[in-house]
Design brief:
This protein is an alpha/beta fold. Helix content is about 40%, strand content about 15%. Strands 12-11-10-13-14 form a five-stranded parallel beta sheet, sandwiched between helices. A four-stranded parallel beta sheet has the order 8-7-6-9. A three-stranded parallel beta sheet has the order 3-2-4. Strand 7, helix 7 and strand 8 form a beta-alpha-beta unit. The longest helix is centred in the N-terminal third of the chain and has 18 residues. The structure holds FE3-S4 cluster (F3S). The site of FE3-S4 cluster (F3S) has 16 residues, from helix 12.
């Protein structure tokens, strides 16, 4: 591969992987089962990124199942989201380059709901941080948090350098986070991720004191903990599948800390824009949204972020019709962070702690952090 016998894209890919392996002291390359490519939005890529993709697409073809993270718009219904046609033209070129490489152009930060779901112990190369954390922690697969080029390189070769979280010795917990607080909805799991992530500072926690967690709660925790500073791997005692020794360092997570985190994530309840689905919604969440919006009209711009195959299931169940009749909009494929929204809105409400972080950091939004129910109440308020 490195000699160019398999084409120039594979040669370039191997150069990227070897350079990465050398930096991190990897002893060898290992095969990966699946890839999730991040850095898909034209908003992040720009023309230089698009040029790189076109170069790789000339003779590069994926060797393993590969899906995409979110682009900067709904790939079918971008006009409904008010996306600039010139941006749309470039974003379509980005996706077409991936298509040419043989990538499945299902675009989502929840690939594990739509067919890219590794098993316990599988080595994968994934890019999007919440998905990486979910894969490592909840599914028990093994991946580092890869960048856009290294995920493309893994897709075109089928390999990744073996270092970091691919090695079992690096997957042990560093400290215990003992939760002494009521954590019983996705928003509060997001707040827990905020608190534990800030304490972790790149280390891996063994979280105790949580008896059960739904898929939506695990998704929220995975997104939040890594956003606020944790490693892209956590252990939840009695729930997650990875084995770890119990470290001696222990910190308590109190109700006050959780309440404080919730409070800190809100600046205002006077918002222009509401986003639900960070990470992308499950079918359960769409059912809830449809129940909360049934017979009501939204008074603010409300986007529901979701993977297109999940939206199709919601169409069949009738949830989509109820949601759209309220005036809410589906944002399939995309989200409020990767879409080009800077300056278009000034404030956002969301039930996602990760969504708050990037809403503030990337788009300078004033924020409201609440439960799904709180956000829907704001959406229909005059
Ligand atoms: Fe997904 Fe966008 Fe949130 S990519 S995790 S919805 S910031």
């Amino acid at each position: 591969m490195i000699e160019g016998k398999k084409g120039s894209a594979v040669k370039k890919s191997m150069e990227i992987l070897i350079a990465l392996g050398n930096i991190y002291g990897a002893k060898r390359l290992i095969p990966v089962k699946t890839v999730q490519i991040s850095g898909v939005s034209y908003d992040n890529l720009g023309d230089a990124g698009l040029e790189f993709l076109n170069m790789m697409a000339k003779d590069g073809r994926v060797k393993v199942k590969t899906t995409l993270n979110c682009p900067g718009m709904d790939m079918e219904d971008w006009e409904n989201l008010g996306i600039d046609p010139e941006f749309a033209r470039k974003q379509i070129m980005v996706i077409n380059a991936f298509k040419k490489m043989g990538v499945e152009t299902t675009c989502t930060c929840t690939p594990y709901f739509v067919g890219n779901k590794p098993d316990v112990g599988d080595h994968v190369s994934w890019g999007e941080s919440s998905a990486v954390t979910y894969a490592n922690s909840v599914l028990g697969a093994k991946t580092n948090k890869e960048g856009g080029p290294s995920t493309i390189a893994a897709a075109l070769t089928g390999f990744t350098p073996e270092y970091g979280l691919h090695l079992d010795e690096n997957r042990q917990a560093h400290f215990v986070a003992e939760v002494k607080a009521e954590i019983d909805n996705p928003m509060l799991f997001g707040a827990l991720g905020n608190v534990v992530g800030e304490i972790a500072k790149g280390r891996i926690p063994l979280i105790t004191g949580i008896e059960k967690a739904t898929t939506e709660e695990m998704k929220a925790l995975s997104a939040s903990i890594v956003t606020y500073g944790g490693a892209p791997l956590f252990h939840l005692k009695g729930i997650t599948p990875n084995k770890t020794d119990t470290p001696s360092e222990k910190v308590m997570i109190s109700q006050d800390q959780i309440d404080e985190a919730v409070k800190d994530m809100t600046d205002t309840d006077d918002v222009e824009f509401i986003f639900i689905g960070c990470p992308h919604c499950t079918l359960n969440e769409l059912e809830k949204v449809s129940k909360l919006l049934k017979g009501k009209k939204v008074k603010k711009e409300l986007w529901i972020g979701v993977a297109r195959p999940i939206k199709k299931m919601a169409d069949e169940k009738g949830y989509s019709k109820t949601i759209e009749e309220s005036g809410a909009k589906f944002a399939c494929d995309t989200c409020h962070v990767v879409a080009p929204l800077k300056g278009r809105f000034h404030s956002i409400a969301t039930n996602s702690a990760k969504g708050i972080f990037y809403g503030r950091g990337k788009n300078n939004f004033k924020t409201f952090f609440g439960t799904l129910e709180d956000c829907m109440k704001l959406a229909v308020k005059e």
